[in-house]
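To assess whether the prediction recovers the assembly geometry, we first specified each molecular entity separately, as shown.
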Amino acid sequence: MVKYIFKRLIQLIPVLIGVSIAVFLMIYLIPGNAAEIIAGPTATKEEIQNITVKLGLDKPAYIQYLKYMSGVLKGDLGYSFQTGQAVSKAIAVRYVNTLSLAIFSALISIILGVTTGIIAAAKRNSWFDRLCMGISTFGISAPSFWIGLLLIVVFGVKLKLLPISGFNGKIWTADGFIHLLMPAITLGFGSSAMISRMTRSSLLEIIHQDYIQTARAKGVKEKIVILKHALKNALIPIITIVGINFGGLLGGAVVVESVFAINGIGRLMVQAISARDFPMIQGSVLMVAFTFVIINLIVDILYAAIDPRIQYN
Amino acid sequence: MNREILLEVNDLKTYFYTVDGVVPAVDGVSFTISKGETLGIVGESGSGKSVTARSIMRLIPNPPGKIVSGSIKFKDEELLTKKDSEMRMIRGSKIGMIFQDPMTSLNPLFTVGDQIIEALCIHQNIDKKEAKEKAIEALRMVGIPSPEKRINNYPHQMSGGMRQRVMIAMALVCSPDLLIADEPTTALDVTIQAQILDLIKDMKNMLNMSVMIITHDLGVVADIADSVIVMYAGKMMEYGRAFDMFSNPLHPYTKGLLDSIPTLSMEGDRLKSIEGSLPNVTLDYKGCRFADRCSERCEKCFVEEPPLIKVNDSYVRCHKYLNRR
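The predicted structure of the complete assembly is given in tokenized form:
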């Protein structure tokens, strides 16, 4: 297993190189350049030229890329074109915020999705099942920024129950928790709808398996039949969806962070893109890609932990 | 045979309510199993044998299935009126059950040991350690080599025959009075089939229990059963002692079944079979359910359903025997 994890970590390198090349090319494709934006609308051609040389933007693309990557290998993600701040430092603070939001909303979506999925499957065709499936269709189709605004209006403005912005970056404190509750629900809602549906359909398939009949014939209680014998077997597709959704949560954070004014990596990326702040965009995307790959690795390890038939060599 | 009766099923009716109408999967089945007796239920797929067994265990999925009427008395206690919690105490403890396909009947994510121990812990007030020892003992009893190692195996690490042995160990670990075996050999190789049948016979004698074995293999019945029920489309067609049925089959369907067994002496001949297939039975079905395929049918067979008629020591559902009573 250790060997497998090591192998997967090695495989991370080509993935990240691929991502960095893709992002680099994309930045070249979007119109406008950093020097013009930094120099401002009233700048002369000469001033722009000076800034271009200073940032190294006059060199051919491959040289720029190689120079950047040699820095990355040394752990140096470069400096922001816009603020001059070290990219790694800027990202570090915001990454914690985004990760807090993503993990918190993942937890909410797992708890909500799996519980409703189990009950819906156990009481198939009941009013609860129909209600859950109705809500989940809504959850999958409703855009998160709209749900966010709705929550802000209801819980923030009308009921004044939850704060609408001002996350302090510390999820583990009561204040941080309360501030992140609404963004996390907004972000996790769609994902929990998907998890709920997957749990339900996966369980319904498993319930008809012969070994469930065997468990019942042994005299096992129905609750334990579902929660132990059936659920464990239904977990593989559920975990797969959770893993894939986590990537979606990181992406969705871009929107939700803007709605709730959270100082996260998503907002950082949006700002960096509009300023053509190349090192900042590149650094943030690499960080998100890295997280996504690690989450997938964890999912793969969980497969093997759940199902003894899955072995990695 | 005048032994103590263990299980008495009377006029059992289990119907399935589907979109296409009501299907009487088991329609008025009655029989008894005495202590130490082995009853075989034979019939083709869809004849209602498995539904009969699952009705006794009260494991009919509802909806769509429902036990509509009848009575199932086990040790003089009515099972059909028992609460779910009372029924759970009987399943696995007083009545053990094994299923057709050992490849899919064991939970793939738990070790065989865990699955046997679970049965023990539900029904007996013992701790994990004691349960583990009993589970090892049960595995040894059903002929699994080095059971103290095998107990930690997952089902996928075992062969089909081994898994069926595990199923048997699991069904018998609480020493039930009745073992219901639903096609226990159908999914196995021929050589393994014989081993598993021998094992069931040995266990039956060792634990002094009764066995209800469901099969479509008449060879299995001849090998193991004391009495036999032949089922067709939810109805009992013939019920009697196994020896009588093989030496003197009464119902045309039973005769047809026995004639379809290939023998070595039939060199070059075509294999005999019963033409046609099971009818789609509904509640308002008229006449004998086998009439369409019967070689000895008469006009009456299509209009009136024959009653169960006693002929010598056996029962048969056929108009042919009505006048001979």
